[in-house]
Give the backbone structure.
Amino acid sequence: MKKDKGSKGKKLFVKKADDRLSEDSPAKSKGTPDEGVPSMAEKKKPEKSAAPDKPDKLPEKPDHLPEKPARKNTVESDPWQQAFADDNTILIKRTVRSGQCIQFDGNVVVMGDVNPGSEIIAAGNVVVMGALRGVVHAGATGREDATVSAFKLQPTQLRIANHITRAPDGDYVAPEHPEIARIKDGVVVIETYQMGQDRQSKIG
Amino acid sequence: MGEVIVITSGKGGVGKTTTTANIGTGLAALGHKVVLVDTDIGLRNLDVVLGLENRIVYDIVDVTHGNCRMKQALIKDKRFEGLHLLPAAQTKDKTAVTPDQMRELCDNLKKEFDYVIIDCPAGIEQGFKNAIAGAERAVVVTTPEVSAVRDADRIIGLLEAAELREPKLIINRLRPLMVKRGDMMSIDDIIDILAVDLLGVVPEDELIVVTTNKGEPAVLDGNCRAGQAYRNMARRIAGEDVPLMDLEANDGFVSKLKKLIGFK
Amino acid sequence: MLDFLLRVFGKDSGSSRNVAKERLRLVLVHDRADVSPQLLDDLKEDLIKVISNYMEIDEKALEVNLDTSDKTVALVANIPVLRMKRTGKRAEKIG
């Protein structure tokens, strides 16, 4: 598995400038799950300089992790799937703990929790089969169609491409269903993850 | 031109981070411009104690490596306009920053802030050396335990060797009742042994756990005894002459007992 | 009330406070006594200077060490005296 020390190796993406999170960003308000109401407010900055560069050096591939290209046979019809069809995916079969950083030029699937203080940075989608409580950045190289999904989606901070959101201050209800975050109309929205609903169920 | 103060202790778990958060907030509450710098790279905690953990985008390593501008990494506190946090990196290690970079960072920060308060990691290795590199004054935190006082003595020696003269001492988690019945070293015992000036004494206070749970510094809680102690220390750092608070006035156990038998 | 409590729980507990203080004092003497050879050399030179005012000593054979035993730390100096000086420092000053 990829555990980049950060100090060595290239950053996979360019962090977005200027958009400080210091001022209170709108809070995440839970909509009724089946309505699919936008629930996590977004902070975005469609600024040109923020367009992340393609990394010129990618993290080494883990040698002991199963890793395979996305399935090809189901993708032709769906442009969204095509976008990720050629990506590599890594499977992380453990809990990602504080201080650990997974950086990968593709999709990241974690079978375990992602604890506060850890970071998942992926060029593609991030799927967490557990609680996602750390910092997550999907589409880190600029893909606005990347998604983040988790059984319990409670990230410290959630970034997709160059959009950043964070959990609201104060208490909020812990999610009871798997949820998926993605950008819709330039806004990061969080919805209940539904099997079979449009395209999510067919992710290769 | 501001002042750079490092909060250190040698031993872990004596309350450096809590002290940093509270003195910093106390100084900001007095109207000063304050920046708190977490140098505990790999084990950052100041952000959580301040309740600012979900706002971090850049950290101290990004600043020292030039990945972002200083202003971008500084996180504004939710409560005080003048309070800022420069968080440590969590996914890197202590060698990511050098003492020279810290010195430069502190020089830049003190141009903009009245107080630059550095939260030092436990231990006496690289992280400690980084933390004290840019400091002009030092505050040593200890608790009334042999292990903590011994480590404080070692740290004071190292600070003096690094030309940080006359460090000030904070005695944390003192339990006046235990001192009274002869089961804990007193303020005088510790001062006697360490031979340094006292900055303040913090009584043991359960509310510290509660305020830390919530991510709100204890100085903001008017009823918190430890908060009162930290407010006093902030004023002393700002140059006021504040007498030591009466620690026994409201000792936890006694006050509980009083409540129990209907005083209050 | 407090006094009563103190009488019940207090004074007779053997005062771990003083035990702590004494142990700590001892530990710190040991810690601080961990001096560098440089410091010992400086001390040696100063000793030679002072003692030479009163007697002639064999500078090469002079030994200065810190001895640590269980309970104490002692500065042990072995200074072979070659000859006493007739006039001490005091006499010189007067003269």
Notes: Chain B touches chain C at residues 145-146, 149-150, 153-154, 157, 179-186, 189, 193, 254, 257, 261 (CB under 8 Å). The mean pLDDT of chain B is 92.
